[in-house]
Design a protein that fits this description.
Its EC number is 3.4.11.-. One of its GO terms (cellular component) is cytoplasm. Its cofactor is Zn(2+). The protein is an alpha+beta fold. Among the domains are: 220 residues, Sandwich (Immunoglobulin-like); 142 residues, Neutral Protease, domain 2 (Orthogonal Bundle); 143 residues, Sandwich (Immunoglobulin-like); 114 residues, no CATH class. It is 41% helix and 18% strand. β23 and β24 form a beta hairpin. The termini are far apart.
């Protein structure tokens, strides 16, 4: 076996090496000269020249780099050295690996310096990666306007220009962009100069360019940008557009901030213009490292694949992630914008200044940015309690996904660059963030931040891997004595980053004294754990009468403890008092107690003293109880009794947790005859809290309190879904009032007259007012109960809206229809060019239809029958393809459905080849659902009926 294992490892290494560039040559500087014609009549033609300064590390007669999706002028490719001039004897493009191989007539000398020149040309396309064309309608002229944007992460810089497209190849950049004078070009660095002479004349004279562009040279300008700092190819960016911009107040940051958007959306940039520089200034203090660039541009792109992209000095965003309207964007939209802006600005240090060596350590970028975004948002919006809410939401996401056998380690080995997109998931982002928070908590913030400062300074403008970070954290902890038990950060953290999954701790108390035993094993949704896996687990323990535990130092369960023998632990609770582990959610693990301790916890939760258990502790208990009951490690009667306390819960996070756990049960019951019992149970659970605000009152109470708003919107959505009397009726009344207005696009929102407020007139009595925070629920409820004419009217409102977040709410609601042919048409638009659904939104539309009880059947047929067209539509967007399939599989509840999928999968493997992780996770989720139906459905339905009486 060992021999076979070694052979397998060797073959994996060889396989991965063939996808990587040989390390004989490294670039030090790129001069990029690019010339674009943003005109559909000339098919968006472009010309370019890449001059790359090279350093030879090992003598070779071949230069290999990346290029894709344009033509190379082979006869113009040249190499110039300090002494001799090697002759180019061949230029060959390998489409499998996107390698551009340049053969020379003699070896390049080791340590020699050379300049490689590659002229290229082609046509830009409408897309979502590389250098691509986006478009929008100018609302004043009603004309289509086009722009060029870039999305080079992870391996699409090669689509923009010939380059060494791996993160370890850092270089400086001097960029010149030629474009029509009607447009403005922006890049990573400030504009240094503009000229009227063709900067590409030595390779692309205007008599050649003019034939393609069919325009005069005098109508073009060439913008030259300042030389950049050293950076990886995926961070290069430029946008050529007719956008407008605003400049942030200079007192907010010494770095100049400009926020760019469509001219008719520029009034939606004020919030980003305020918080962007505030967050950047705070991060400079928090990291104790200055932002190294003189400016920071942030742009809202109409067509954009991700939420945003952290390009150094030029961050690009979806419109929904940057633009905020006081009248039409919800409080949750505002929170999302703050989170995304903070996330991208955190990347300026983690990712841009210090970059992972290879994509296997993507979590060093994304995990840190996800965690530090909560730090930034907490600084600029302290009343939101982002530090706590983000920690809870991230941890719950991790506990769900990482319980699958088909999950992957945080530090994920990659044997094929085409699979890089698969690890841009909750493991890299959310588990990474959760583990970073864990380190801060067990090391202490002071030690943690000092280590980060040292790490950032040591590896500035360079690359690092996780062991480099562990070394700095260990050194800082040794100086402070913050890490107990004579262990290193690497020993602790490798158990969390190199292993898939997380542990479940089984806690069994000895009630004759104040002791208990702990065992650990990997937790899996299918309930089978491997005893060979173990973790260094930080233990935060709270005893019922001892509130001082919250400030005590962290205790540890070692990776050899509680595995083959139970680990003994002393505590301070009496026989009639509870013990609670992980009360502050310091780490992602589950806890199961003996029945007596569970009952003691439930006794407190279901009493007026439930707040004795901290908010995070209540979250942990709800999440653990429901999950353990799901796979029969805890009785559902006990779990539902615990959940019954939610009738008096006033905090958003525990209520959100309980409803999220119940949503998992709803998902497997919603198409069954027993769904009514589930609805009745939820109605009993939510009726009291529902009456206090939201749709029950047709208004938001305490609208300045984000967590109160979240609670009201969540409860209102559930209330309409489970048919709490009056909920859908109120939603439909509000929607009908909106429909009856003469100018619905101007009268939603309706500005409340000051006189109404002065005279105490209730807000909900003002005609046409649908509170922005309730609109998603109101729209969905009305469309679900309405007919085709209402659906078309809503579509017209979406088309007319100038606010992306408003369009997004209507787009989601359109999937709530119960008309099969309407849903079929909606799905058709996701694969049709120029339809009502932009390509960036197509995946979300398909997923939303798939999740609905009616739409599931329509979507399943659509996916099975149109997979070739779906694959073509999502070309280069493998994550979206994987997400669609995973969503479909998540709805399965019968073996017949799964068997049907597996047969279909055999015939369509080629369309799923880049989504293997997502598909495997979806299949496992389906099996989990099917097993639950067989084992627990009857028991749970009976218990819900019992608790609903």
């Amino acid at each position: 076996m060992e021999c076979l294992k070694v052979l397998f490892l060797l073959s994996s290494v060889q396989l991965s090496r063939q996808y990587l560039l040989p390390d004989h040559i490294a670039p030090s500087h790129y001069q990029l000269r690019l010339l674009y014609d943003i005109d559909p009549s000339t098919n968006f033609s472009f010309f370019g020249v890449a001059d790359i300064q090279l350093t030879v590390k090992k003598s070779t007669s071949k230069i290999i780099l990346h290029a894709q999706d344009y033509m190379i002028s082979d006869d113009k490719v040249s190499v110039v050295g300090q002494k001799e001039v090697p002759k180019v004897t061949g230029v060959k493009l390998n489409d499998t690996y996107n390698f551009l191989e340049i053969s020379l007539d003699k070896d390049l000398e080791e340590n020699g310096k050379y300049k490689l020149t590659i002229p290229f040309y082609g046509n830009l396309v409408k897309g979502l990666d590389g250098a691509y064309i986006s478009s929008y309608t100018n609302r004043q002229t009603q004309k289509t306007e086009y722009l060029i944007s870039t999305q080079f992460e992870a391996i699409s810089a090669r689509k923009g220009f010939p380059c060494f497209d791996e993160p370890m190849y850092k270089a400086t950049y001097s960029i010149i962009i030629g474009h029509s004078k009607e447009y403005t070009a922006v890049s990573n660095m400030p504009l240094a100069a503009s000229a009227s002479e063709n900067a590409l004349e030595d390779y692309w004279p205007w008599d050649v360019v003019g034939k393609r562009f069919r325009k005069e040279r005098s109508s073009f300008v060439w913008d030259q940008f300042a030389k950049s700092v050293p950076m990886s190819t995926y961070l290069v960016a430029f946008v050529v557009s007719k956008f407008s911009h605003v400049v942030s107040p200079p007192e907010l940051s010494k770095t100049q901030f400009r926020i760019w958007a469509r001219g008719d959306a520029i009034d939606q940039t004020s919030y980003a213009a305020k918080i962007g520089p505030q967050v950047l200034s705070y991060f400079e203090k928090w990291f104790n490292v200055s932002f190294p660039l003189p400016k920071q541009d942030m742009m809202a792109i109409p067509d954009f694949s991700a939420g945003a992209m952290e390009n150094w000095g030029l961050i690009t965003y979806r419109e929904t992630a940057l633009l905020y309207s006081d009248k039409e964007s919800s409080f949750l939209n505002k929170e999302r914008i703050a989170e995304v802006v903070a996330h991208e600005l955190a990347h300026q240090w983690f990712g841009n200044l210090v970059t992972m060596k290879w994509w296997s350590d993507l979590w060093l970028n994304e995990g840190f940015a996800t965690f530090v975004s909560s730090v930034g948002v907490s600084a600029v919006e302290p009343t939101w309690r982002a530090d706590r809410s983000y920690a809870v939401e991230n941890t719950l996401s991790v506990l769900s996904l990482d319980a699958l056998e088909s999950s992957h380690p945080v530090s994920a080995p990659l044997d094929d660059p085409k699979r890089i997109s698969e690890i841009f998931d909750a493991i890299s982002y959310r588990k990474g963030s959760t583990l970073i928070r864990m380190m801060l908590m067990f090391l202490g913030e002071g030690v943690f931040r000092q280590a980060l400062h040292n790490y950032l300074m040591k590896y500035s403008y360079s690359n690092a891997e996780q062991d480099d970070l562990w070394a700095e954290l260990t050194a800082a902890s040794l100086r402070s004595g913050s890490l107990t038990r004579n262990i290193t950060v690497k020993e602790v953290m490798d158990t969390w980053t190199t292993q898939t999954g997380y542990p479940i701790l089984t806690v069994t108390r000895d009630y004759s004294d104040k002791s208990l035993t702990i065992s650990q094993k990997r937790y899996l949704s299918l309930g089978v754990g491997r005893t060979s896996q173990a973790w260094w687990v930080p233990l935060s323990v709270l005893c019922e009468k001892d509130r001082k535990s919250e400030s005590e130092s962290v205790q540890w369960l070692g990776d050899t403890e509680g595995v083959t023998n139970e680990h003994r632990y002393e505590h301070g609770s009496g026989a009639s008092e509870w013990v609670l582990f992980n009360y502050n959610m310091i780490a992602p693990y589950r806890v199961n107690y003996d029945q007596r301790n569970w009952k003691l916890l439930i006794q407190t939760l279901t009493s007026d003293q439930y707040t004795l258990i901290p908010v995070e502790g209540r979250v942990q208990l709800l999440s653990d109880a429901f999950e353990l009951a799901w796979n029969n490690q805890l009785d559902y009667g006990m779990t539902l009794q615990l959940a019954s306390y939610l009738k008096r819960e006033t905090e958003y996070l525990p209520l959100y947790t309980g409803l999220s756990a119940l949503a998992k049960i709803e998902n497997v019951l919603k198409r069954s005859s027993e769904y009514g019992a589930f609805q009745k149970f939820i109605r009993r659970l939510l009726n009291n809290v529902y009456q206090k605000g939201g749709l029950a009152l047709k208004r938001i109470v305490d609208g300045d309190d984000l967590n109160s708003v979240k609670l009201q919107t969540t409860v209102s959505s559930w209330a309409c879904s489970v048919k709490i009397p009056g909920c859908e009726e109120n939603a439909i009344d509000m929607f009908n009032d909106w429909m009856r207005t003469d100018r619905p696009d101007e009268n939603n929102p309706y500005v409340v007259p000051p006189s109404a407020l002065r005279h105490g007139i209730p807000l909900y009595s003002c005609v046409n007012l649908i509170p922005v925070d309730l609109r998603r629920t109101v729209y969905c409820s009305a469309i679900r109960r309405g007919g085709v004419s209402l659906w078309r009217w809503s579509l017209a409102r979406r088309r007319a809206s100038n606010v992306a977040t408003s369009r997004d709410a209507l787009q989601h609601a359109l999937a709530c229809s119960r008309d099969v042919w309407v849903l079929a048409q909606y799905l058709e638009w996701t694969v049709s060019d120029g339809s009502e659904v932009r390509r960036q939104d197509a995946g979300n539309v398909i997923a939303a239809v798939t999740r609905s009880a009616t739409g599931y059947y329509v979507a399943k047929d659509f996916i099975y029958g149109r997979i070739q067209e779906i694959s073509k539509a999502f070309n280069g967007q493998d994550r979206r393809m994987g997400g669609i399939i995973k969503t479909l599989l998540g709805q399965f509840t019968t073996k017949k459905e799964l068997d049907e999928f597996l047969e279909w999968k055999k015939l369509n493997e080629k369309y799923l080849s880049a989504s293997k992780i997502a598909v495997a996770q979806g299949i496992e989720n389906a099996r989990v659902n099917i097993e639950w139906i067989q084992r627990n459905k009857r028991t749970v339905v009976d218990k819900m009926r019992e608790y609903s009486m």
